[in-house]
Amino acid sequence: MDSMKTGREDSGLLHRLRAVTRASHERLDEAFGALDLTRRDDCARFLVAHAIALQAVQPVFARFVAEELDMPAPDFSSMLAADLAERGHPTARLPALDAAEAIRAPGGAAGVCYVIAGSRLGNAVIRAQGYAGREAGIPSRYMEDDTGHAVWKQFGTWIRSRTFGATEAAGVEAAALATFEHFEAAFAVGTKWELPYTDG
User: Fold this and answer.
1) Among 8, 35, 171, 175, whose Cα sits 20 to 30 Å from the Cα of 140?
2) End-to-end Cα distance, the chain
3) At CA 119, angle to CA 114 and CA 120, rounded to 5?
């Protein structure tokens, strides 16, 4: 049975996730990288896109972190809601995107966590490059947050300590891919969202 693999063999799931999602990850990085976060409209669109994406996947992420990693889950949706409210963009007006079946499937939450927790590692880069609002005394809670690093570290420990059968591993990989696609869809919607101002 595939569930009887050794821990050493199963520790490769993290490596497989990186390989399977590499193209999706690079595509998403390229999309968001096209935004100039020092411009307040681009920075707002960055936050809007993330808020749209997280509406559907934050609950999945939060349950996994609490139940499987046994630690408090950062409430990224609330951080974004506060950030956007300060910038004049109430999240109640944002469109909703449904989570794909792979994200909602049993076992899919680990793939969701892989994407969301992993994405927090880029925060230091964003802060180093600067973004609109920070110098004006309106820092983004979402961009400044570092609690996701602890989640990523615990996730690495969790995934390396478990054994995964082929079907279970495939479900995690499918959910990770679907989560990247979900963020891509949110980017497409969020970056076209009409803002009440534009940079000159």
Assistant:
1) 175
2) 62
3) 110
The CA–CA distances, whole Å, from 101 to 14, 57, 68, 104, 178 equal: 22, 12, 20, 5, 8
Residue from 161, 185, 191, 168 nearest 57 by CA: 185
Q: What is the pTM of this model?
A: 0.89
* Residues contacting residue 81 through CB under 8 Å, at least 6 positions apart: 51, 91
Amino acid 139 reads P
Owner of token pair 């109430």: 90
Q: Is 97 left (phi over 0), alpha (psi -120 to 50) or beta?
A: beta
> What is the token pair recorded at 90?
């109430």
Place of tokens 């996701």: 148
